[in-house]
Amino acid sequence: MSDKDTLFTYLLRLADDHLILSQRLGEWCGEGPTLEEDLALTNIAVDLIGQARALFAYAGEVEGKGRDEDQLAFTRYEHDYLNALIAEQPNGDFARTIVRQFLCPRSWFRSGARWRNLPTKLLPL
Fold this sequence. Notes:
This protein has a single domain (3-117), classed as Up-down Bundle (Ferritin), CATH 1.20.1260. Helix content is 62%, strand content 0%. The protein contains four helices and no strands. The longest helix is centred in the middle third of the chain and has 29 residues, at 35-63.
């Protein structure tokens, strides 16, 4: 696998995590235990969508096939998504959702170890 392929796969994995997690958090809109928590989770979901969009856009640039963020996010079959399974777990109660929110960024950090040695010209610095 080339450096660009490795980076593309990592960006896609990260973007998929952000997209799926934002959709799960969006399910809390209007359902949170208190108004403040409801608004906070909704705002986090919107922020994750923005991050996913930026990651998909950069993945499209790295791939070089002319696909934009919408094509990468929404024109793949479900088995083509590379998200961590924890991101798509049902919300359950509020405590489970918060634990998932705590654990997901740790999995993103750990999975990044594979691409840390890529040439810096591939990374958006």
